[in-house]
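Dear support,

I submitted the protein below through the web form. The confirmation email said the job was done, but the results page showed an empty box. After a refresh the structure appeared. I'm attaching both so you can tell me whether what I see now is the final result or a partial one.
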Amino acid sequence: MQDKPVVGGQAVIEGVMMRGFGNMAMAVRQPNGEIAIEQQPLNSLTDKYPILKQPLLRGMVALGEALVYGMKALSNSAQLAGEEEEELSDREMLVTMFTSILLAIGLFIVLPTFIAKFLKSYTENLILLNLLEGLIRLTFFVIYVAVISRVRDIQRVFEYHGAEHKTIHAYEAGVPLEVEYVRPFSTLHPRCGTSFLLIVMLVSMVVFSFMGWPEIWQRIGSRILLMPLIAGISYEIIRYAGRNAQSSLVSVLIVPGLLLQKLTTREPDGEQIEVAIKALQAVLPAAVSVEQEQEIEIIEGK
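What the results page shows now:
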């Protein structure tokens, strides 16, 4: 695998969003069959405040920006795909994000913490209690992913998720960005957001296991307050895994995340791969695009 600048992506409604080289691009298959492409520069806080590029801090910023850009991309893609008449306003976007975060906190922090309080009658080992709470949280997360993966509309998004991974694999391997060359690659990728969320769950289990067992509202509050730090640690782990995927140790450690991705990705068809390719090509600098054209000529013997 060639050492190339990192490109990340996200599946959206009938399309794929890619981020890299200081740009973001989204390609969406429209009802008439054509592919619409939207591009915009990425104005990261890390560019304005370089200190935020330091380990741990960059992970917190990356998570926040991913939420913002991801929500906007989903809204815009739904409009381009003909599923929504109007784009969400900034106010509506903020309300949607806030509601989603509250639901996530309720399902993956408040509820597991509340259930775990009943375990204290079975053991006084505080580390074990915190680990059991973490297992409850992890179980809820896996069940949630498994349930939504059964929804037909979500399965369609997961097919684009698979197309996104295949295309990034092809880019990282240095092969031409053409459907026939991209198709053989795996739908699983070590830098996937699904793997990131799983790592967040596992890291939180370790961190919280050494925090004692205060009153329930103190436990809930501490878990919420520490989530940015846990996200920062998890980001560094997923970043390392992505850059050292060939390492034997990393190959073993990323297995749980890859297994979970089997729920959040599906095998895409050629048209979906084409959309993902268009999204990636839209963020690549001209020099990289020329390089890809030359690789096609070499492979095809021109």
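Response: this is the final, complete result; the empty box was a page-load delay. Confidence is low (pLDDT under 50) at residues 293-302.
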